[in-house]
Amino acid sequence: MKEKADRQAPGRPDKEGLKAQLEAFRADFERMRSEIAKMIVGYGDQVEKVLVAMIAGGNVLLEGVPGLGKTMLVRTMGEALALDFRRVQFTPDLMPADIIGTNIVGEDGGGGRTLRFQRGPLFTHLLLADEINRATPRTQSALLEAMEEHTVTVAGKTYVLEEPFFVMATQNPVEQAGTYPLPAAQLDKFLFKLIVGFPNAEELDAIVLRTTTQKAPEIATVTTREKILEMRALAARVPVPSHVERYAGLLVMATNPASDFSTDASRRLIQTGASPRGMLGMLAAARIRALLNGRTQTAVEDIKAMAVAALRHRVVRSFEAESEGIKTDQIVEQVVAAVDEQHQAVFAQAS
To answer: H or E stretch including 129?
Structure first.
């Protein structure tokens, strides 16, 4: 079967034009990563994927026990990137108006009464939704429109959020008393789910050194919101060859046990598979990874590198997988390996 032409976004530059902008993109990204590393010890992969998600226009769910520096990560990003940062501590008594804002009664210039919209903390660039699963589903759902459409609608009026808008939510995987699991519709709005593990001995020593014997490092502003939007526009124009596009689609279909492309692992270990939004998320992140690795178009290896982070929260394990203690990451890795084996000949050119 003849390969289709590469999918190209309207107005994208040719390969030579992309190469001319490639080094600037990589240099800007590295400056952001290095500046954040002044404050955040370890977690190099998580920091990189958080930045990738922000540039891609997605959101991130961080899972880890308290005290690992998740709040510090977002605050440091705000300082280094010259972006507004707000933190909301989610609790069972938090109401949607506490996040979005509400109309309040005020006085106009003539002494009459008028309604004025008081904006909530959602109107920012970087929003940290701390322990998001402690709020009720009603409050959690207040974020859905903002996360997907980057707009907020109150009393029939729609407000457009200033770009870049990025939500980083956290949840504690250990303490589940008094929590409300995130519904699938909300989980699907996160581009990545990242696992924040406990630091190793060397990283713990560095944390102690930085917090007890040294002055806290000063975070310099290394970029602006305008530059971030330029990086986002450039990444969106990176071409995706048709075989890479098809690979991402097959990978998502393979996670669905009822699909014609399902694998032995997905039929046995998965109850519900990923959505098409998971495929779009992998493609968006793959464009950025391609640029960071000095390439002017995406490859299958970029999809593989983003697959676990983009699919682990979109795949629901079966009872059999839970009873055997098989983690979601392992299932996704098995599905990726099975897709590679089944379609090795078709995608050999992508390696």
So the answer is: strand 126-130
